[in-house]
Amino acid sequence: MYRTNTCGELRVEHCGTEVILAGWVQRIRDLGAMTFIDLRDRYGITQLVTDEKTDAGIREQAATLGREFVIQVKGKVRERSSKNKQLPTGDIEVEISAIKVLSPSILPPFTIQNDTDGGDDLRMKYRYLDLRRPAVQQNLFLRARIAQATRNYLSEKGFIEVETPVMIKSTPEGARDFVVPSRMNPGEFYALPQSPQIFKQLLMVAGFDKYFQIVKCFRDEDLRADRQPEFTQIDCEMSFVEQEDVLNTFEGLTRHLLLEILGVETGAFPRLSYGGAMENYGSDKPDIRFGMKIVDLTSSARGKGFPVFDGAEYVGGICAEGCGEYTRKQLDELTEWIKRPQIGARGLIYLKMNENGTIRSSIDKYFNSEELKDLAFHFRARAGDLILVIPGEREKTLTALGNLRLEMGNRLGLRPKGTFQPLWVVDFPLLEWNEENGRWSAMHHPFTSPKPEDIPLLDSDPGKVRANAYDLVINGVEIGGGSVRIFDAALQSAMFKVLGFTPEQAEAQFGFLMNAFKYGAPPHAGIAFGFDRLVSMFAGLDSIRDVIAFPKNNSGRDVMNDSPSPISEEQLKELFLTIQQPPK
Ligand code: ASP
Questions:
Q1: Domain 119-266+525-584 has CATH 3.30.930.10
Q2: Pocket mutation for ligand 1, best pick of 159, 170, 233, 470 (most atoms within 8 Å of C-beta)
Q3: Is residue 172 lining ligand 1, measured as CB closer than 6 Å?
Q4: Residue nearest to atom 1 of ligand 1 (CA)
Q5: Separation of CA 406 and ligand 1 centre (Å)
Q6: Can you give the residue ranges of every domain in the chain?
Q7: Separation of 417 CA from ligand 1 center, angstroms?
Q8: What are the φ/ψ torsions at residue 109 (nearest 5 degrees)?
Q9: Residue 395, C-beta contacts closer than 8 angstroms, at least 6 positions apart
Q10: Ligand 1: does its nearest atom lie under 6 Å from the Cβ of 483?
């Protein structure tokens, strides 16, 4: 038997018992007469001790141990004279009567404890050591609990977990595919799924009624803090349902997870239309934990002789409560902030609400005090507030204001961790204009159903067509999205046509799906949650990397095993591949 107990288990009631423990040496304190060793495993830390009464041979052996040695010790549990209240096992220690080194360790490159001295890169390179740190382990335990709770909830609701293939024909979700060459079919490739979209729809055609899968998806796109080339989704599909049924089911799942995992109770999730979200929050994933809604000033701001407003398609602003004391320097800095390419606004106009009821602004030259008061009235601004106004092209300006709103929300502490405000965003446009390719592309994906009443607009005014598509947003983060699907072959081919596919291309790529629809397809709808994002939000972390056991870095590399990496000439030959230009 390797151990009788774990390192997190022993308490005062165990005093006097003989135990065997195994684990990693976290820390050794040699006090001369006494030596303390902290022994760590997944379950906790237990203090081991040798003193004058300990056999000299064992004391010698203890002196040869180093950090991260894997050892097995035998000993008797005794009450500590000075207790450690921080540690669940802090009332006891184990008097060592035998030590066995199971595996020695060379000096680790950083300390294996929560506040480690290891930088990001080093910790990624030695991820298996980083994963020994309790804080990192906690994230993965949380992940496993959320996965389990999800499985339980959905299984109880009658969902069947079905595995779909990883080597597939491309499914478009708006990113590039990762591809896998086929040795047996020279010159041909599989794609890794961007999602199991088509398969889950085919499962509905096959009569499975309710499907789910906690599944890896792969998207070759530029990486950001909350993106990984491979990530996990809670993927679902349901038959004979409408949008309402999907929203209710997954609102239920989300509330269940918040309550079961975090003990957080949430009321019914509010719903916002895409248009409303953009107009009021400048984002299709608004953080509604705080107000500071965007106010449209276009009609009041134009026509007062201020060329910047007069020439703008849209003028909008937000009111930051209590920021009226902002200094020139702070305002300049904010202006620089919104001018950064990521935000891209051209300028920022401010109105400061003074205590004496007057208003100081950067447009005093063009607006008299009555006109300024009229602008401020739109915000119901009070003394001490700061109104920030941006003019410009409507959509860009709304987005810039949305970003500014989040920034001010951060500065004012209105976005605290540990509070959760989910909502549904519904009524997305079906299509968006793709400048680069000069054609329409699907805002969600090509299998999303238009709202039936908007179908006639598909030919005449495609940009106006709304989709039966929905997103679940929590605290300004898109946690999931889905849609009611097209289940009619003719409508699906009409959709491909709008998206610029020739009938031949549509047939070659999606013929099997449209064909399947000819054999009796049930109305169906579904959704997928970004599992990594959900877990990192529950953990109160900003990046999904910390909730993934072996993540990639920002360039999509696994720096631990140094991949991606070249393959041998022989492998290339077998696959009939030639590398045109060896990457630098
Ligand atoms: N396949 C979609 C996605 O990955 C989700 C869905 O429509 O169910 O975003």
A1: yes
A2: 233
A3: no
A4: 197
A5: 27
A6: 12-103, 119-266+525-584, 290-415
A7: 27
A8: -70, -15
A9: 278
A10: yes
With a CB cutoff of 8 Å and minimum separation 6, the contacts of 243 are 426, 468, 470, 484, 525
From CA 83, how far away is CA 87, in angstroms rounded? 9
Beta bridge partners of 77: 94
Q: Can you give the pLDDT of all 584 residues of the chain as single tens digits?
A: 999 999 999 999 999 999 999 999 999 999 988 999 999 999 999 999 999 999 999 999 999 999 999 999 999 999 999 999 999 999 999 999 999 999 999 999 999 988 888 888 999 999 999 999 999 999 999 999 999 999 999 999 999 999 999 999 977 778 899 999 999 999 999 999 999 999 999 999 999 999 999 999 999 988 776 789 999 999 999 999 999 999 999 999 999 999 999 999 999 999 999 999 999 999 999 999 999 999 999 999 999 999 999 999 999 999 999 999 999 999 999 999 999 988 888 899 999 999 998 999 999 999 999 999 999 999 999 999 999 999 999 999 999 999 999 999 999 999 999 899 999 999 999 999 988 889 999 999 999 999 999 999 998 999 999 999 999 999 999 999 999 999 999 999 999 999 999 999 999 989 999 999 999 999 999 999 999 999 999 999 988 999 999 999 988 999 999 999 999 999 999 999 998 876 66
The residues with which 176 forms a beta bridge, in sequence order, are: 220
Residue 313 CA, ligand 1 centroid: distance in Å: 34
For domain 290-415, which CATH number applies: 3.30.1360.30, 3.20.20.80, 3.40.50.1860, 3.40.50.2000? Answer: 3.30.1360.30
Tell me which residue has its CA closest to atom 8 in ligand 1.
527
pTM summary value: 0.94
Amino acid in the structure at residue 82: S
Instruction: List Cβ neighbours of 281 (8 Å cut-off, separation of 6 or more).
Output: 287, 288, 293, 294, 402, 405
Q: Which atom of ligand 1 is nearest to the CA of 483?
A: 7
Both tokens assigned to 449: 């159903």
171 Cα nearest atom in ligand 1? 1
- 438: tokens are 């000069």
Whether ligand 1 lies within 6 angstroms of the CB of 449 is answered as no
Query: Is there a contact between 281 and 347 (Cβ–Cβ < 8 Å)?
Result: no
CA of 490 relative to ligand 1 center, distance in Å: 22
Architecture of domain 12-103: Beta Barrel (2.40)
Q: Whose CA is nearest to atom 7 of ligand 1?
A: 482
**Cβ 201 under 6 angstroms from ligand 1:** no
Strand order in the sheet with 477-484: 160-161, 210-218, 230-239, 524-530, 477-484, 469-474, 422-426, 271-273
Does ligand 1 come within 6 angstroms of the Cβ of 77? no
